[in-house]
Specification:
The chain is an all-alpha fold. The protein is about 70% helix and about 0% strand. The protein has two domains: about 80 residues, lambda repressor-like DNA-binding domains (434 Repressor (Amino-terminal Domain)); about 45 residues. Helix 2 packs across helix 3, helix 2 crosses helix 4 and helix 5 packs across helix 6.
């Protein structure tokens, strides 16, 4: 039992970091960046980037932010937990295209689309219960 509790605690503690590192790896691949190229963009040595791309509990905010910028991203930290969504990777290009068509940035597009869907679902549920 104690081992299971310790395992759960470990997963909770490092899940966000592992997800972040997977996202960096995905974007690095999408941009066809080598570790050397990523290191240059981050202002780090190749060996430092290599070490950081493994799940390490001592990764600093500055290091994470540099990695995110290195792949063209932006580090955002939130305490909203369950109220934060990650868009599946296979929808990224569709979202960018849709946002451009509507002359919005991606964030504006996602917020509006999410709001419209939630309001629509709420109205639909109210109609069904009448």
């Amino acid at each position: 039992m104690a081992c299971e509790a310790g395992h759960k605690e470990y997963l909770e503690q490092f899940e966000a970091l592992a997800t972040f590192l997977n996202e960096i790896d995905f974007l690095k691949s999408e941009l066809e960046l080598t570790q050397r190229a990523l290191a240059e963009k981050c202002g780090m040595t190749t060996s430092k980037v290599s070490r950081l791309l493994t799940v390490q509990p001592n990764l600093t905010y500055e290091q994470m932010s540099a990695l995110a910028r290195g792949v063209g991203g932006e580090l955002r930290i939130t305490a909203f937990g369950d109220y934060t969504a990650v868009v599946p990777k296979d929808l990224h290009s569709t979202i960018v295209e849709n946002a451009k068509k509507r002359k919005q940035d991606v964030q504006e597009y996602l917020q509006k689309a999410l709001r419209e869907k939630i309001v629509s679902d709420s109205k639909e549920r109210a109609y069904v219960t009448l």
